[in-house]
Amino acid sequence: MEKTCLSAQQIAFFNDNGYLTVENIITPDEIEQYKAIYNDFLSEKIKTGGNRSDLGDGLGKSQAKENITQIMWPSDFVKELLTMPYHRRALAISRELIGADAEMDFDMLINKAPYSNTITPWHQDEAYWLNLPDKRAASCWLALDEATVDNGCMWFVPGSNLKEVRPHRFAGKEGGALTCDASEEEGTYVELKRGSCTFHQGRTLHYSRGNSTGTDRRAFILNFRPAEMIRYERERGFDHGRNNAGDRRLTNEDFKR
Question: Which residue segments constitute the domains of the chain, with CATH numbers given?
Fold first, then answer.
């Protein structure tokens, strides 16, 4: 198991603000390894079937290509990802942030292609999930390219993790991305170097602008929660799109508008 050493100040910041930046979770050499695998997914050298979808369907201008490429469960197709450095180190950090019982619930890739200019709308991840008895969760968002305001770095609303989940609705086509009422005026953006990441909680409001630059914005996301809650989900048939990634819905009736 990887050893980490978050400071008390870092853990307090995560608890108070709902997010945390962690620099250099993977090395420059490791970044290149991950980018090679990631590009095999994007080029469809690795076939993912229904686990690949357009998160920006109905939000962007393109109907001929994906506005925001989302690939669920990449570790189902490249098993060695589970034992590579990112998964190991992110799990260790998540256990420091939310508890020693944390395990990986799911992983996914989200890419914003050059000049795709499609926002990921404001939302809280918890709106996508079952209404779990234990709501501890941490999502790790790794930048494989430099993440900037112009290519779609993350924005967070500090302290939104301590409030209720806002009413959500479909942002574009039904079955696509969810959104709620929020704005950049409430938030703060977090630019990242390649190989650095953010962790955020399930109730933390977040969004990103579209990619208006000439390079990809490749992000690799891992989600962690208590092992008992993962069992709770699976017993109820909820697997975060493992079997049908394109079928999104407002799972939690409490968050419908």
Answer: 8-255 (2.60.120.620)
Q: Taking the CB of residue 256, how many other CB atoms lie within 10 A of it?
A: 13
**For residues 142-153, average pLDDT:** 98
Residue 253 has pLDDT above 60, yes or no: no
What is the pLDDT, as a whole number, of residue 5? 83
Longest dimension (CA), the chain: 48
Between CA 91 and CA 57 the distance in angstroms is 31
Instruction: Convert the pLDDT of each residue in 184-214 to its tens digit.
Output: 999 999 999 999 999 999 999 999 999 999 9
Give the pLDDT confidence score for residue 248 in this predicted structure.
45
In degrees, rounded to 5, the angle at the alpha carbon of residue 79 between the alpha carbons of residues 207 and 198 is: 25
Phi, psi for residue 166 in degrees, rounded to 5: -75, 155
